[in-house]
Each structure stands twice: as structure tokens, then as C-alpha cells.
Amino acid sequence: MFVRKKPNRSGIVSVQIIDKSQGRYRVLKTVGSSSDADEVELLVEKGKQMILRIHGQMAMDFVIGEDRHFIQTLDSHLHKVQLLGPDLVFGKLFREIGFHAIPDELFRHLVISRLVFPLSKLKTADYLLKFNGIAYEVTKIYRYLDKLRNDQYEEVQKISYRHTLEVLGEEPAVVFYDVTTLYFEAAEEDDLRVAGFSKDGKHQHPQVLLGLLVSYYGYPLAYQIFEGNKFEGHTMIPVIEAFKEKYDLGKLVVIADSGLLSKDNIAQLEAGGYEFILGARIKAGAKKIKEEILKLKLEDGKSAVLKQEDGKRLVISYSSKRARKDEYNRNRGIKKLEKNLNKGNLTKQHINNRGYNQFLSMTGEVKINIDYDKVDQASRWDGLKGYITNCSLSKEQVIEGYRQLWQIEKAFRISKTDLKIRPVYHRLKRRIESHICIAFCAYKVYKEFERQLKEKQTGLSPEKAIEILKTIYGLKMTLPQSKEPYTYLMAKEQEQIDLLKSFGI
Fold this sequence. Notes:
Largest sheet: 8 strands, mixed
Number of strands: 16
Distance between the termini: 29 Å
Shape: globular
Helix content: 40-55%
Strand order of the largest sheet: 7-6-5-8-9-14-11-10
Mean pLDDT: 84
Radius of gyration: 28 Å
């Protein structure tokens, strides 16, 4: 017996309980149907609960006499089947981090729900009722979001920071910064939610910018939201300055990618006494510098330092793996241009410096060509990467430090896909900030979960471990004789037992 998702031609997915005990598939029950992916997942979990009850009833059919009477008596004391796995493990981590200092139990439910079933607040209320037996009116959730922003917002971030210090064993000397966009389903704009350049490709939707600061290994340190049309290069300094001031920190090394490289940012970082490692746009540099870079002829894995007139250093590295990737991407782009050219889809409006359009040229007044000499010139840069810095670290340390930026890219990926931080459905600024705060806390718990899974040598990824937790249910009942409440944990599979045991449960 299992739960099946059956897509229909209309785009609606039917969730069914299927039986194959007699050698053929038979629909026992249709749990429900929806075109909403989140709703479908809730229906799947509801189907799993139904299977548990069906198995219980089937077991009843095979017992007689006093045994049947005993089970019927026991059934009368059974209150509910509850999803327990996520709350057991994530609730433990929640307390270890220190988030239990926030007195409202709803805060814990919202954070853990974001890790297990990241849904809208309305559907979260539905999930909590169906799978945890906890009833919250959605209006109460909205009122709590207001309280979170007004009274607990700063304390939540301080709790997270204190725990990160415990994990790292020291104050962060190196911080990583990047910015992304979060779009809204609603079309209305205001002072904060404004359409702008979207990293999600949702250019018609209002959005906000989210600036995120993390430590080594990707532990979240601080964040700030900005207007959706703000230039991302102007977001970095406010976030770093606020973080440094809040925790009275000393010298910091700031690492960010080339999209945040600007004269203003560099000047402000230097004026603030920061050291930095920023991605360098080496192909857009001065002619003299570009000539020096191309003369280096670096071998795979090798690097060199070019001293700048202003005292900063330009570190150049070469990777054959990166070179192969650069060549592959360029060839794919050229093939696409050739295809469009042969179809007559390119006009003089396409001649610009965006992407691979830089290789287009125009002869006469109307004929568009691909300039293959430009393509050959571009290939000379394959595999080369530049980093501009004013720090005293060795060139190898500079390169390795910059490589850690993938941690913040991973943070954004997890937040957007696993935690579904966007689209955002809220309209009021304070609730938008609370929504992001809950996602920030959920990501913090996720990172601690990931760290402990590795430390305990479980061999499980966070994603796989969460799927296992979502299969662990419990029976809540009142014992017939003592009248005491009792919870029976239904964890019989070895992977369930091993995971709970690794967390001391």
C-alpha cells in the first residue's frame, strides 16, 4: 500500500492510496487533488497517515474475543497520530542554539515548519493542525509576526550569533557578503517592494534585495533587506558596518564577488579600516594590466601577484578545469548565436556587450556577422581568475578565501529552494522582515543540523535526513489504567532508529 501522485491533463494532481496486495494496482481512496505543489505535498502526508490507520484497522480484523476488546478499549484512548520526527530532532537543535529563550511557542513551530514543509502562513496553520494537532488561527500567526518584528527581532539574531561564536570558537575575522533578490506574488509596489533587476528572472514582479553576511563554513551572521530597485553594490557597506557596530568587532577581512567591486565600495572599505578580497574584472581592466596578465602563461593550479600603483595587489590564478568550462560555455553561446543568425533573428539592436552578443558585428548597414577574431581573443582568458586585495594574506590564502564564497551561494540556494523563502506573500514591511527572520533562523537550524550530521558521521545529507524525519510518526494516547498521557514513537525502520539515536533520542 502506498501513496501515488497522479497528474491529470488539466495540470491538477490527484493524490491516491494504491493497493497492490492482489497483484494489480487498485485505488483504495482518493485523498484529494490540487494544482498547488505545496498542497499536493500536504495531501501526500495525509495519505500516509490514512495508510497507518488502514493498517491498524486491518490488524483489528485478525483479532478476536478479549484481544479485540482490548484493542478497541485502547483505541478509545487514542487521541491522534502525529508527525514527531522533525520536532524531536529540530526541537533539540532549536534549544541547543538558544532559540528557546524566545518565549512564544509559535516561533518554534514556524521555524521548524519552514524546514519541513515551507508553506504560506495559511497553509502552515493547516499543516500544524493536521500533522501536529496544534490549532492556530492564521490571524494569530500574523499578529505574532508583528510581535516578532517589534519585540524579538534583534534578540533572535543575537542568539544566532552567540551560537555561531561557540561553533567557531572565536570571533569571525573573515566575513563573506553577497546579495540576492526575493520576489513577491502581489503586483502592487510600494517604497520597499519595487520591480528591479531580478536574479530569479521575475523582472515584472515587485521585489526586495536581501544582503547576507556569513562566516567560514556558511554560518549566518547578519542580514538586511533593501528596496527592490537599489543598486546591489550600495548594499554591502551598510550591512558590514551595522554588523561590526552591533557586536563591537575589531578588524575584519571582507570577501565578496566581482559584482560588488566598485571604486566607492573599495574607498569605503579602506576608510573603515577593512581588509578585503574582491573578485576582479580582469578583462575590463586597463590595457597595460591586461597585457601583463596575458604574458603570465600560468600553468594549471599556479598563481601570480601583480602589484598595483595604489598599493593593492591583483592576484591571478589559472585552472585548466575552469578553462574547459569557459570554453564549453562560450562555444555553446556561439552555437546559439549562429542558429539565430541563420534564422535571421538577429538585428542591429542585438549588437551590445551583454553576454555573447559582444561577438556580433555589423558590416554595411544591415548585415549582422559573428566576429570570430573577437572569439579567438576571448579564448585567451579561459581559465584565468583575478582577485583584488589589500590584505597581507599569501596569494594562496587569498584564492582559498575567495573560493569559500560558494558557501554563501549555497545559503541562497538552500533559502530559495529548500526553505522557499520566496515568493513572499506579505505586504506590510514588518511582516516581510519577520518572514525573512524566520527563514534566517530556519537556515541557522539547518546549518547546525548539517554540522552535527557530519560530526556524528551519519553519512546522511541534510535533505536525506529530513526525508527520514518526515516518516517518523507517533501515537498519542491516555493509558487505560493510570490515565496518564503517553506517546508511542513509531520508528521501526533501521534508518529511522539510527538517525534518532545519533541525536540522543
